[in-house]
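Lay summary. Proteins are chains of building blocks that fold into shapes, and those shapes determine what they do. In this project we predict the shape from the chain. Here is one chain we studied, written as its sequence of building blocks.
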Amino acid sequence: MARIAALEKVASNCNGGCESSLPHGNLPWVGCSFSAGDDALGPFSTTCRDNLTYKSYVDCVETKVFLGEYQNKARWTCSSLQASGKYQQVAERAKHPH
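And here is the predicted shape, written in a compact code that computers can read:
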């Protein structure tokens, strides 16, 4: 219960941009796209966003599985976040806090 409470405190509905079904103005479409495959086959979606921020791929997969996500879907989503450089951005923010 403590781990879930801690995750709830850091969750954000629009982490990295709110999901949208279409581009808005000059902003691109945001969300995970399965258009060229699925969570077992890929390819990865660099438009993926998540309501949690992860330190690493391992942190992402472990958290997603802990929260009840299927392993294949967790790995695909976390790989997509990695492909879009989300973990590097978290590392940079940790080095240079505001």
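What the prediction tells us: The CA atoms of residues 40 and 72 lie 6 Å apart.
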